[in-house]
Specification:
CATH architecture: Up-down Bundle
Protein name: MFS general substrate transporter
Organism: Hesseltinella vesiculosa
Main location: membrane
Subcellular location: Membrane
Oligomer: single chain
Number of domains: 1
Largest sheet: none
CATH topology: Growth Hormone, Chain: A
CATH class: Mainly Alpha
Pfam family, one: MFS_1
CATH superfamily: MFS general substrate transporter like domains
Length: about 450
């Protein structure tokens, strides 16, 4: 196996023939347009579909984060504890991760369009029911059902990208998709804080229901089927009868070393991110005396960090891939997409340490927010690169591998958000985030094994 770090021999650089899938040339330039093959569609049609899918993905994490600033109001209305309210957030995030283990393999058998349309419709229905609930039990039940169908965009998005895009287009599409995914939680707490203060927490659900209804209509009329099966003539209903979905098998993809190690690394960072944002309202109200609407504004640096991380990943991932391919004598390896993580790791560690100790010593607010910005930027840079790598390395099962990555991240997010208050009360802010930095470093180191041995592992199946 060629060493991914191998350099070009001295002397004149040989003329290399770079494979088609690593060039900057769009696939449509060399392939005749074929209506049933999404890879030959014009770019505007691809990006219309990608926009709708990304918007659905946005609604998932937006729905989980938008009522974080409203936890106190929801607790008071239902006369319950803050632990119960935080648990509804945690289990919502858990269902965001688990549900795609069913939806992704299903979409690889019967197609993606109707799963998208049906999923966003049911998301809208359960969002309305959350908004009108007056009973705590009913509210929790409808909230969990909302979480199941909020996962549609995240569960199927990687598959749709693999269906439509090739080469450089694909890495940019993943970045665009991840930007949509994280733009939701980036703006959700700020939006949620103002809506809760001026309209009441129920309008969090009414506004989401309006957006969901519009998205349902847009998907019904404009979203295309992207799963191209040229040798399959079986009618849809017959395919539906023969469906076999095994979520345990899908989750078992984590046993493949390249998938498991990559997912474990980014899930660790994502878990600490959820602990950070779950504790954020109490942290800044205790330490700095902020009100609910102002606390919502404090999430903005994290949103900027998340968005910039996805954008930077889109700008540099394919360039690094092409450069390393040339240095590897023209042989492309999917592992080259992981190279920019060497930038992410120092930022992850610095961000955690700056944030934790700035709060612990009640330093200037902007110092803590700078650490928050660094950490979120590096977290989203890592997640975007990991999804790009998984799509490229496992094209045939792209929806499933991206779903299992989402699943493990959300499991970590669930556990860390449930334990957020306990960990902070036990360790204090400084040592909480020092512990976070140590664990992130430990779980990112095995990515070196993926870098050197990933191609051989994948060759073994």
């Amino acid at each position: 196996m060629p060493d991914p770090s191998q350099g070009t021999p001295k002397g004149p650089e040989p003329q290399l023939s770079i494979p088609k899938d690593v060039t900057d040339t769009p696939s449509t330039s060399s392939t005749a347009f074929e209506p049933v093959d999404p890879k030959t569609w014009p770019l505007y049609r691809k990006y219309l579909n990608l926009f709708l899918v990304s918007f659905m993905s946005l609604m998932g994490y937006f729905s989980s984060a938008v009522y974080m600033p409203a936890t106190t109001e929801i607790r008071e209305y239902f006369n319950t504890s803050i632990t119960v309210v935080n648990t509804t957030i945690a289990f919502f995030v858990l269902l965001l991760g688990i549900s795609p283990l069913f939806f992704a393999p299903l979409s690889e058998q019967i197609g993606r369009r109707w799963i998208y349309v049906g999923g966003i419709f049911l998301f809208t229905v359960f969002t309305i029911l959350c908004g009108i609930s007056t009973n705590l039990g009913a509210f929790i039940f409808f909230r969990l059902c909302q979480g199941i169908f909020a996962s549609i965009g995240q569960g199927l998005g990687g598959g749709s990208i693999a269906d439509m895009f090739e080469g450089r287009q694909r890495s940019r599409a993943v970045s665009f998709y991840m930007f949509g995914t994280i733009f939701g939680p980036a703006i959700a707490p700020t939006v949620g804080g103002f809506i809760t203060r001026y309209l009441g927490f129920r309008w969090l659900f009414y506004i989401k229901a309006i957006i969901g209804g519009l998205l349902t209509l847009a998907s019904f009329f404009f979203l295309d089927e992207t799963l191209h099966q040229p040798h399959t003539k079986t009618p849809f209903l017959q395919r539906l009868k023969s469906v076999r979905v095994n979520p345990i098998s899908t989750f078992g993809l984590l046993l493949k070393p390249p998938i498991g190690l990559v997912c474990l690394a980014v899930s660790t960072a994502f878990g600490w991110f959820y602990l950070m944002v779950t504790n954020l309202p109490l942290t800044f109200s205790d330490r700095y005396g902020f009100s609910v609407d102002k606390i919502g504004l404090l999430y903005l640096p994290g949103g900027i960090g998340n968005c910039s991380g996805a954008i930077v990943a889109g700008l540099i991932a394919h360039r690094c891939y092409l450069w390393l391919t040339r240095r590897n004598l023209g042989k492309p390896l999917a592992e080259f997409y992981l190279a920019p993580i060497v930038i992410a790791l120092p930022l992850l560690l610095a961000g955690l340490l700056i944030y934790g100790w700035a709060i612990d010593y009640q330093a200037n607010l902007f110092v803590a927010l700078l650490g928050y910005l660094f950490f979120t930027h590096a977290t989203m840079l890592s997640i975007t690169l990991s999804n790009t790598y998984l799509v490229e390395a496992y094209l045939e099962r792209s929806a499933s591998v991206v779903s299992v990555n989402n699943c493990l991240r959300n499991i970590f997010a669930t556990v860390f958000s449930v334990l957020a208050a306990i960990v902070r009360n036990g360790l204090g802010d400084g040592w909480t985030y020092t512990t976070a930095a140590i664990t992130v470093f430990v779980f990112y180191l095995p990515l070196l094994l993926v870098w050197f041995y990933g191609p051989a592992w994948r060759a073994k199946g």
